[in-house]
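Journal club prep — side note

Before the paper discussion, L.F. wants everyone to see what a predicted structure for a comparable chain looks like in token form. Sequence:
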Amino acid sequence: MSHEFFDYFEHVELPSPTLDDAEVRRLFAGTFGIEVDLTSLGSQQDQNFRVFPRDSSVPLGVLKLSNPVFSEPEIEMQDAAAATVSDRDPGLRVPRVVLGPRGPLSSWWNTSQGRIHARVIENLSGRTLMGSRYLSPAVVHRMGELSARVSLALADFEHVASGRVLQWDLRHAGRVIDTLLPLEPDTAVREFVRAAADDALRTLRPVEQSLPTQAGHFDITDDNVLHRMEDPLPDAVIDFGDVVSSWRVGEIATTVSSLLHHDGATLATTLPAIRAFHELRPLDANELTALWPLVVLRGAVLALSGRQQVRLDDANSYAGDALEREMLILEVAASVPSRVMNAVIRDSLGRRDAPDEVWTGAPLATFDRVTALDAGTTSPLNDEGRWSAQGALDDAALASLDDGADAVFLPAWRPVLTEAPARTPEAPATIPTGVTVWLAQPTPISRIDDTTTIRPGTIAVSDGGETLTISGLASSGGDRVLPARTRLFVQRQGADVVAAPERVTAEMAAGWRTVLGDPAAAFGLTPPAAADTDGEDVLGRREAVLAEVQEHYYTHPPQIERGWREYLIDIDGRVYLDMVNNIASVGHAHPRIAEAAHRQLRLLNTNSRFHYRAITEYAERIAATLPDELDTVFFVNSGSEAVDLAIRLAQASTGRQDMVAMREAYHGWTFASDAVSTSVADNPAAVGSRPEWVHTVAAANPYRGTHRGADAVNYAPEAVQVIEGLADSGMPAAGFICESYFGNAGGVALPDGYLRDVYAAVRRQGGIAIADEVQVGFGRLGEWFWGFQQQDAVPDIVAVAKSIGAGQPLGAVITRREIADRYRTQGYFFSSTGGSPLSSVFGLTVLDIIRDENLQENARQVGAHLRSRLEALASEHPIIGAVHGSGLYLGLELVLDRETLEPATRDTAAICDRLRERGVIMQPTGDHLNVFKIKPPLCVTRESVDYFADAVAHVLATGW
């Protein structure tokens, strides 16, 4: 029996079936022998329902009522393709036709709207990626992987109906656009789609006859994949309704197009999908050329088809709801010429082999004395925050002209930090696509064929078939004299590129560079040789030479090479807001610290046994911040050393060995500090591997500990009981140590009076009370300079580090004179660089800055404002279980359930990654790694913490 297969161009108007629920239920029972309930599902050209056995909540499957224009072999082909993929890739979940009491639930129905095919497909568990929420790089990568796996499974699949003509077959995209475009009533839409399609077709046509073909799914999109509830990565492919034989590359082009409407999507964010596809299903050179034009054409077909479908069937909410995102797909896909994106893709796959195109015409002007500006991240031009000053480039250029240069230029294609924006939710455009030039004298343009004014202040200059534009001119017109001491931007024009941006993002630079090349030769300029470090794999080298356990933040970290105040800056000139770095307590690269260190290094830096003034002054200053009895100071190099020494002091002064420590705390990595550290996040075997001389008490966490809320008053009596129990058993403790504000848990305040009661108990037994202030001390809490002050308690020993040196390795232990003197029983104490002249000057300067810039008060005010913002978010988002902390030591604890407090560990890590994409550095802490450790430099501004809160709000609203 012969069949006539579907040809879209004979059925341009394709309204979907619209049977009512009652008729569907009646036909279902009559045909398949099952009484069912229905839930309508969306479709553009079919009619779909989720079906349940009557009065059951367990779905039987998905009922698909195919559009009546599709023949039986076409429907059989869809099922056969799904079965083939399922058989050849068992790890991929693919739905099949459900078996019922009368056999497969697949049949033709005679309906009120004619003969319609009905079949029930398995209802796979999970969720689609429908909607426009954010997709992580891992999800995007998985989308490309799924596309490749299905393509491989169907590589040799053949069927008599595979030659049908679908509107979604990208081989026919140009013809579909030509058919639908005249039907589009909106002139602006018509013009935009035409221009986008024409650019894509220009790139596609030279290779289209050489593209490999095969059968494929050709609709592996965000709507047609599923992920399990417990795993965000999709592992199922559904809806084989568009199976056809077409260009093989169309599979990944279709997948990529579906990614472009999601929150935060850019052209560059699709690259993980393309790389994943290419790893499994390598794309040949012609396919790489065709890929992005096909993405654009898919977007054009989606936009026009969706608008046409709504005009035909305005009750089709599925098609109507998709209109905005379908147009967005096209807008993003067509936002750069296809040639540019093709080059970006090739570069991402390691296939860039074209050298830079350069100006080959005669020089327009030449200069004797030329200065090249370096405006990159590490350039001295950007020191002391000058990168943020508008006009800094002009100031530097004019200064060079004043020093005798004939011309000053900023090279193309080198990242520029100078004048870059701070706090950007997307990577900023920091790579110039042309040369910026300043001239000492008015300079005529010579030896040219043509000069044309293309817009006010911009001329196009042509010579020998080459064209470049010069912008920044004071006036329009055909003036061939370039003005002096004026910033001019010179850009070489690529073929078919009408208007290129002056700057692009680092991820897009390779593509634009391939098309535009470098215009420097037009002015006789020679860009400085690229640094040897350009393009090198510093992360790979780091991982090859450093121990694996010396970890770094993020799987794919930015390379940070500069800091300023509360900002960190990568090599591409992106400025990140640093909300986690309490090391740089008074701000990154503080000029007073740099100057003090520079001066001291020109004077003296030696070990601390020599007699010099700085160590004395610093010891006096740090002791003056503490209660009078804490009057004797030791200097070391780190928090670990400080805690280690504090423990040794307790043991030496009491003649005892045993120590009591709070569980879930981290104190350091030296032998003694590690011994009292029981955080399983830092060491999964922490509790069980403690030496016999370490005894622990419950983590006094009023939020998620054993005693919560008002019951937290029980922590202190229980700790006292442990201390007294040790004494009763003949092992009185040498001391008790804990953070005076529970920093490792995310800035959780200890219950009121906890330290007062526990310190009293340990002292009654002749022991020593140690306050670990490494994270929370030195004004960070805002209301208190030291954490123990919040508890109305005074320790016997204080250990502090991190922030006191603002990045210089510096720690201190402060105690009473009699305790310090007893250390002699352990021998002498010596730390070569602890309290060295340089370290002491660092410490003194930090104290001066905290005082002079009123940073403790800033911590109090800005921290209170930030806390209020976060508490407001907690009222909107159930994932926020609690806001902890004080001042600028805050914790945002994320939970899956506010009753059980199940920690949202995976979500916390994912949200931190998303925040980094939006320009915020944040990391998790706590035993469950589900708490944001919010501890920015103390100089952080209200505007910056508002940006942070806004970023968190955006991520929680749009996904991670």
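L.F.'s comment for the group: Residues 285-312 form the longest helix (28 residues). Keep this in mind when we get to the figures.
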